[in-house]
Write a structure and sequence with these properties.
The chain is α/β, with parallel strands linked by helices and 613 residues long. It contains 25 helices and 19 strands. The protein folds into two domains: 218 residues, Aminohydrolase, N-terminal nucleophile (Ntn) domain (Glutamine Phosphoribosylpyrophosphate, subunit 1, domain 1, 4-Layer Sandwich); 300 residues, 3-Layer(aba) Sandwich (Rossmann fold), CATH 3.40.50.620. The two termini are 39 Å apart. The model has no long low-confidence stretch (mean pLDDT 95).
C-alpha cells in the first residue's frame, strides 16, 4: 500500500523545494508508517510514505533507474497480484532486478512497455512515473478505482497525491470548495474525475494522465464494456468459482500477517471460507474479524434493511472454516467520540456523511491493525453480482435516476433537508443528479436483441460498478489507511467484474434471489445458515445512547451561533433534531445530526473557502 505525492513545475528547479515536498509527504504518514522517501531532479519531485507488505527490506521508494537518455523514477501505491509472471517475462526480455518487490516490476514494466504497462497489471494501484527521457509525468490508476489518486493542474505543471491533503500542503493549492463541489458532496453520484476541492481532479479509474510541457492529456486503457455472454448456467457458475479461487490465492500473498473481514453475509463469508481452504493446504489458519456493538445481539430490532444481527452468522462461518476469529465490540461512547469523528474527517478530507458506519469502520480497522497488516474484504460483491435491494425494487427499475438514491432516501432519510433553503435553491441538486444520470446512462452500450428489461438491469449494474462502488472503495481505503491497514478487495478483480457484468440478469438471479451466481459458486464452503441468509447491509448501532450523544454535541454547536457551519445548514432544523424528545436510535433520525457535526468538524479542521455564488 502506501501514500504517494509529487510536484512537476517546468519553470523551476524543484531540488530547492525539499521542505514543501516533505510537508506534502508527511500528510500521509498514516498511509505509510514504515518508511519515507523523496526524490527530486530538475522540474520533478516525488514523495513516498511506505507500508511494507512485500519484500520488506527491498521495496523502498521513490525507485529510479538511470538510462543514457535520462532518469525514470516511480512512486507507487497498491499491489500488483501478477507481478511474479510479469517479472518472469521481463527477465526473459533482458531486465535485471535487485529486489523482490512488485514496485520494481512495475518500474521495469514501464521501461519495457511505456504507459501500456497498465493493460498488463492485475491489481489495485495508483502510481506516477517521472520520465526524464521525455520530461513528462505519467499517472496511472487501477481499473476499478480501488486506490485513490488526485491531481491539481498548475500554470506550469501539476501537483498530485494519493489524497487531497497532500496537494493542499503545497502553497499553490488553496482549500476552496465551490458550488459544484458542494453538489458532489451532497449527492452520492460520484461524478468521474470530480474531486470536490476546487481546482483538483481525480485520475479516473482505468485511465492514464500524462503531463508534459505541452499540457495535460488522458488515455482510457480500460472501461467496462458490453459483450455477449454465451456460457450456460453450469459453466458460468464453474467459471465464477475458478476465478474466485485464483483471485483469493493471489491476494493472500504477503510478507506480513493477513486476515479477513467477516460480516456473516454471503460475500465476506464466501471470501473467508475460500481463503481458509487455501491456507489450510499450507497448514495455516485464517484470522477473521467482525464488528459488533455492545448489547446489539440481545436487543436487536429488525427493520426493512436488516432482518437479523450479524453475529450468529459470523460465528457459524468461523466454526465451519475454523478461523482464528475475534469480534471487535464497540460501544456508543466510542462511536460518538468527537476525537473519532475528527480522525474520520481527516482521513476522508471531506464530511462524507456516513455517520456511525464510518466511525465503526475506523475503530474496527484500528483494532485489527494491532494484529494484522493486510485484510481481505467482501466489498463490491453486491455491485458485481446484484445484491442490493434496489436491484429488485420495481420503483427503482422504472425510475430515471441513480438506483441507490431512491433506495437511500426511503431507508436512510434525506440529509439535504438540513441545508439552508437559499443554499438548497442555489445548488439545485435535483438538476445536478438528473444531468449526471443522463450522462452516465448514455455511455452504456446495449447488445443487439437485448430486451428492454435486460437492458434496464444492465444499466443498473453498470451504474453501480462505475459510480456507486467508487464511493464505497474510497471510504474503505481512507478508513483503513488512516491506521496503516491494507484492505484488499478480491471481488474487484477486473476479470471477475467483466465476466459477471456481462451475464444476463436472468442468470444473475436464476433462483429468484440476490447474488445467485456467487451463492452457488461457493455453496460447498458455506454454512447453510449463510447460504440461506437474506442480504443485510453493513451494521449500524441501534443504541439510543449514541443518538443522545449526537444531540448533546449538536446543542453545544448551537451554543456557538457564529460557527461557519450555519452558513450551510438551517439552524432551526438542527435545533429541532437536537431537542427532539423521541429516541434518535435509527439511522433516519440521526442522519441530519451526523451530517451537521461532520460539516462543523470539517470546517474547523480545513478552514476551507466555501464559494456560495
Amino acid at each position: 500500500m502506501c501514500g504517494i505525492t509529487g510536484w512537476v513545475s517546468f519553470d523551476r528547479d524543484l531540488t530547492t523545494e525539499s521542505a514543501t515536498l516533505h510537508a506534502m509527504s508527511e500528510t500521509m504518514a498514516c498511509r505509510g508508517p514504515d518508511d519515507r522517501g523523496t526524490w527530486a531532479e530538475g522540474p520533478a519531485a516525488l514523495g513516498h510514505r511506505r507500508l511494507a507488505i512485500i519484500d520488506l527490506p527491498g521495496g523502498r521508494q521513490p525507485m529510479s533507474v538511470r538510462t543514457p537518455e535520462g532518469t525514470v523514477a516511480l512512486v507507487y501505491s497498491g499491489e500488483t497480484y501478477n507481478f511474479t509472471e510479469l517479472r518472469r517475462e521481463l527477465v526473459g526480455r533482458g531486465h535485471t532486478f535487485t529486489t523482490d518487490s512488485d514496485t520494481e516490476v512495475v518500474l521495469h514494466g514501464y521501461l519495457e512497455w511505456g504507459d501500456a504497462v497498465a493493460e498488463r497489471l492485475n491489481g489495485m494501484y495508483a502510481f506516477a512515473v517521472w520520465d526524464g527521457r521525455h520530461d513528462r509525468l505519467v499517472m496511472i490508476r487501477d481499473r476499478m478505482g480501488i486506490k485513490p489518486f488526485s491531481y491539481h493542474p498548475t500554470p506550469d505543471g501539476v501537483l498530485f497525491g494519493s489524497e487531497p491533503k497532500a496537494i493542499l500542503a503545497n502553497p499553490l493549492a488553496r482549500p476552496r470548495v465551490a458550488l459544484d463541489g458542494l453538489r458532489e458532496l451532497f449527492t452520492l453520484v460520484k461524478t468521474p474525475g470530480h474531486a470536490v476541492w476546487d481546482g483538483m481532479r481525480e485520475v479516473e479509474p482505468g485511465t492514464v494522465v500524462t503531463v508534459d510541457r505541452s499540457g495535460l492529456r488522458t488515455r482510457v486503457y480500460w472501461r467496462l464494456e458490453t459483450r455477449p455472454h454465451t456460457d450456460d448456467r453450469d459453466t458460468t457458475i464453474a467459471t465464477v468459482r475458478s476465478l474466485l479461487d485464483d483471485i483469493v490465492r493471489r491476494q493472500l500473498v504477503a510478507d506480513v500477517p493477513r486476515c479477513t473481514l467477516l460480516s456473516g453475509g454471503l460475500d465476506s463469508s464466501a471470501m473467508t471460507a475460500l481463503a481458509a481452504r487455501q491456507l489450510a493446504g499450507h497448514g495455516e489458519k485464517v484470522r477473521s474479524f467482525a464488528v459488533d456493538f455492545v448489547g446489539q445481539a440481545d436487543n436487536f430490532v429488525a427493520d426493512e434493511l436488516r432482518g437479523t444481527p450479524d453475529t450468529p452468522f459470523v460465528h457459524d462461518v468461523a466454526r465451519l472454516a475454523r478461523t482464528d476469529h475475534q469480534d471487535i465490540v464497540l460501544d456508543a461512547q466510542s462511536l460518538a467520540d468527537p476525537a473519532v469523528r475528527e480522525k474520520v474527517i481527516r482521513a476522508r478530507d471531506l464530511p462524507a456523511g456516513f455517520g456511525d458506519m464510518d466511525a465503526s469502520l475506523l475503530l474496527l480497522f484500528r483494532a485489527i491493525r494491532d494484529q494484522s497488516t493486510v485484510a481481505l474484504s467482501g466489498e463490491s460483491a453486491d455491485e458485481v453480482f446484484g445484491g442490493y435491494l434496489q436491484f429488485f425494487d420495481e420503483d427503482v427499475r422504472r425510475a430515471d435516476t441513480f438506483p441507490w438514491l431512491l433506495h437511500f432516501g426511503r431507508h436512510f432519510g434525506d440529509d439535504t433537508d438540513i441545508l439552508r433553503p437559499d443554499l438548497a435553491k442555489a445548488l439545485d441538486l435535483e438538476g445536478y443528479i438528473a444531468d449526471g444520470y443522463r450522462t452516465a446512462v448514455a455511455a452504456i452500450h446495449r447488445l443487439d436483441g437485448e430486451s428492454d428489461f435486460e437492458y434496464r438491469m444492465r444499466q443498473i449494474c453498470h451504474l453501480h460498478l462505475t459510480r456507486f462502488v467508487r464511493a464505497l472503495l474510497d471510504r474503505k481505503d481512507r478508513m483503513s489507511m488512516a491506521v496503516g491497514l491494507e484492505v484488499r478487495v478480491p471481488f474487484c478483480d477486473h476479470r471477475l467484474v467483466e465476466y459477471v457484468y456481462n451475464t444476463p440478469w436472468s442468470l444473475k438471479s436464476f433462483d429468484g434471489r440476490e447474488k445467485s451466481l456467487l451463492r452457488e459458486a461457493t455453496a460447498d464452503v458455506l454454512p447453510r445458515s449463510v447460504y440461506e441468509r437474506v442480504k443485510s447491509p453493513y451494521p449500524s448501532t441501534q443504541d439510543p445512547r449514541y443518538g443522545r450523544a449526537l444531540q448533546d454535541q449538536a446543542k453545544d454547536l448551537l451554543g456557538r451561533p457564529s460557527h461557519p457551519v450555519f452558513d450551510l445548514v438551517d439552524r432551526e432544523r438542527v435545533r429541532e433534531a437536537a431537542e427532539r424528545d423521541a429516541p434518535v436510535s435509527t439511522q433516519v433520525a440521526r442522519r441530519g445530526l451526523e451530517r451537521t457535526l461532520d460539516l462543523a468538524q470539517w470546517l474547523d479542521l480545513y478552514s476551507p473557502e466555501v464559494i456560495l455564488s
